[in-house]
């Protein structure tokens, strides 16, 4: 029994190492292909993959004569990453035009539409992406999909105003979704976003028309932002299991 447990633990550790390496390779390739001596303002997404974009950016800033003037964060986590890497931290109101923004995704479909917000950061992420000339996704092979909702089974993350979470759950059920209020792990009660809102994860199954779904959801009072990012990313870099990086571009 103990041998089986050890073998299982070793297999899990190996799988995790593969995924981490895939994230690192996708991120390094994306940064190397999109950061040039012309780049001034960089958007920094949130999550575990974009950590490696910041790592690579910091390496290049130290070793090359780059002219990066500002990094714009999409969350508390991104802000900490920028500060810890010694990169110049700023905000959209000071630098409204971003040359390139890097971000992770929970799932990416054939048209590069994405589900984002697994870490509850989709509101600021979409604001930053909307101000970027280039929006680049970095991800591991598990996120590579054809239809949204096929790989990511937790539903579309919706940032919502706390005072209407219960009416929103009813309205989403009436639309055919299976919605749940996201609960915190080490705090009693719901997850509270960086903006003081709640998150509802609404499972719609396979999403054939994400553009129409996003339009419908954002029109509902109380839904501040959706985790559907449609027609925003033009490049998606996937770190693959075999160590290669696959680029899909729109
Ligand atoms: O709210 C979180 C963000 O949308 C992340 O970019 C997304 O969840 C992907 O995160 P990770 O790179 O950790 O898979």
UniProtKB/TrEMBL annotation:
Catalytic reaction(s) noted: aldehydo-D-ribose 5-phosphate = D-ribulose 5-phosphate
Top-level taxon of the source organism: Eukaryota
Enzyme Commission number(s): 5.3.1.6
The keyword Isomerase is assigned to this record: yes
GO biological process: D-ribose metabolic process; pentose-phosphate shunt, non-oxidative branch; pyridoxine biosynthetic process
PANTHER family: RIBOSE-5-PHOSPHATE ISOMERASE
Name of the protein this chain belongs to: Ribose-5-phosphate isomerase
Organism of provenance: Spizellomyces punctatus (strain DAOM BR117)
């Amino acid at each position: 029994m103990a041998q089986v447990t050890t073998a299982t633990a070793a297999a899990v550790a190996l799988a995790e190492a593969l995924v981490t390496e895939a994230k690192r390779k996708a991120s390094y390739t994306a940064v190397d292909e999109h950061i040039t001596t012309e780049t001034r303002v960089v958007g920094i997404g949130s999550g575990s993959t974009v950590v490696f974009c910041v790592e690579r950016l910091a390496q290049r800033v130290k070793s090359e004569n780059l002219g990066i003037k500002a990094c714009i964060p999409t969350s508390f986590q991104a802000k900490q990453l920028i500060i810890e890497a010694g990169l110049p931290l700023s905000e959209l109101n000071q630098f409204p035009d971003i040359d390139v923004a890097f971000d992770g995704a929970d799932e990416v479909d054939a048209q590069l539409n994405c589900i984002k917000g697994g870490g509850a950061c989709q509101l600021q992420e979409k604001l930053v992406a909307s101000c970027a000339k280039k929006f680049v996704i970095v991800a591991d092979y598990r996120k590579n999909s054809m239809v949204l909702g096929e790989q990511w089974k937790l539903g579309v993350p919706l940032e919502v105003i706390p005072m209407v979470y219960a009416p929103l759950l009813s309205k989403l059920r009436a639309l055919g979704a299976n919605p749940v209020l996201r609960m915190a792990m080490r705090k009693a009660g719901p997850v509270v976003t960086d903006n003081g809102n709640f998150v509802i994860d609404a499972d719609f199954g396979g999403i054939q028309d994400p553009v129409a779904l996003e339009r419908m959801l954002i029109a509902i009072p109380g839904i501040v932002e959706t985790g559907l990012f449609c027609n925003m990313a033009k490049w998606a870099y996937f770190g693959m299991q075999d160590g290669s990086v696959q680029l899909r571009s729109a």
